[in-house]
Write a structure and sequence with these properties.
Length: 173
């Protein structure tokens, strides 16, 4: 298990945000990685949301069917160097929480997209990249900047434009 980087990639669970993952994976094709697709999420302060609803409940509500299919296509495309890929929620903007999250999760790298605007329709989702940039000095992980080419500021959320126009011979199952 040596030389496997655990890489956190911010997402808003849109298909368009998977372009960040694709860009990172295409530029690091020779490195074995575990990907953590993390979203900033405010769980609120009601007893019901804190005790009655699990992280899996939140994730299943946030992840669309297209997002999951896109993840499966990425796993299929990069199966030689993608060891594991899963989604997670970061539930606080607090620097101490982030430091413990990265230390406990043994995250070695953080991918920070430049110029990408997360556009979640969910009000509880917050832009994780701002929080990470603000706390970058207290987090002991290597920052990997990613600049997306042909970035559309309004974003697109289409499987066709991201996956099917490429000359890949993969499928999701």
């Amino acid at each position: 298990m040596a030389n496997i980087a655990r890489v956190l990639v911010p997402t808003d669970f849109s298909v368009d945000s998977l372009r960040i993952v694709l860009n990172f994976m295409e530029k690091n094709a020779d490195q074995k990685v575990e990907l953590v697709l993390a979203c900033g999420y405010d769980v609120g302060d009601s007893i019901t949301s804190l005790l009655g609803i699990t992280k899996e409940d939140h994730l299943s509500r946030l992840e669309s069917e297209d997002f999951i299919k896109g993840c499966e296509m990425i796993k299929s495309r990069f199966k030689s160097n993608l060891v594991e890929m899963y989604s997670d929620l970061i539930i606080s903007r607090n620097g101490r929480y982030l430091r413990n999250y990265f230390k406990g999760g043994r995250v070695t790298h953080i991918v920070l997209p430049e110029g990408y605007l997360f556009a979640s329709k969910e009000s509880s989702v917050f832009d994780l990249t701002e929080v990470l940039r603000k706390n970058v000095e207290s987090i002991s992980a290597i920052i990997v900047p990613v600049k997306l080419e042909d970035q559309l500021l309004e974003g697109i959320d289409s499987m066709d434009s991201i996956f099917f126009r490429r000359d890949w011979r993969v499928s999701y199952e």
